[in-house]
Amino acid sequence: MPRRMRAFLADGTPSPPGWTVWESDGTAWLAARPDDPVSAGDLIGWRYAAGAGEPPGRGWMTYVEQCAGPSDSLREAAVVIDFGDAQRGERPPAPVRACVRVDEGATAAQVPAKVAEVRTGARGEVAAVNGYPAAPPPGPPVPLLAGGVAVLILLAAVVLLAVRRRA
């Protein structure tokens, strides 16, 4: 079931900066999961965003607007791929808008591959569409991680000393 304004990975964890998947209810974009089923007449949107919670552009809202007619027994769905936020040194490609035929049991993660080249990451998340972004979004800087580890070690040492003094 789609959720409002919160994007998730296939395993249910909140999405970091990167590709997010959405479903339109005809009036708004609702965050979806990559493993959500896709039915005839659905409008699925994918967007590259600097942070979770940014849906595709508001100009694309209904299946009928995308596919120029009501859905029929052909099991067509509409897909929008919005390359969103430019990454440092890169220029986003033009958005992709298309009607695609979806197989029985198709998921939101399978839809963009009907009209674009999709590269996935180690956890099954969409890492790039049509080569964008060329590199994965940066994680936390190493000094920040090292500083966090150092703080945790010091905190553990303080707790250990306090426990020994009480004993």
Q: Helices and strands, in N-to-C order?
A: EEEHEEEEH
Task: Report the radius of gyration as a whole number of Å.
Answer: 21 Å
Q: How many independent structural domains?
A: 2
Question: What is the assembly state of the chains in this entry?
Answer: single chain
Q: State the end-to-end distance.
A: 53 Å
Report the strand count. 7
- Uncertain stretches: 1-6
Major sheet: size, sense and barrel closure? 5 strands, mixed
Helix content: 10-25%
User: What average pLDDT do the residues reach?
Assistant: 78
The 3D shape can be described as elongated
Helices, by number, come to: 2
Strand line-up in the sheet with most strands: 2-1-3-4-5
In percent, how much strand structure appears in the residues?
15-25%
What is the SS-derived class?
A: alpha+beta
How would you explain this protein's 3D organization?
The chain has 167 residues and is an alpha+beta fold. It folds into two domains: 18-136, no CATH class; 140-167. Helices cover 18% and strands 22% of the residues. The chain is built from two helices and seven strands, in the order E-E-E-H-E-E-E-E-H. It has helices spanning 63-67, 142-166; strands at residues 18-24, 29-31, 43-49, 76-82, 96-101, 118-120, 126-129. The strands form two sheets. Strands 2-1-3-4-5 form a five-stranded mixed β-sheet. Strand 3 (43-49), helix 1 (63-67) and strand 4 form a beta-alpha-beta unit. The longest helix has 25 residues, at 142-166. It is elongated, with a radius of gyration of 21 Å. The termini are far apart. The model is unreliable at 1-6 (pLDDT under 50).
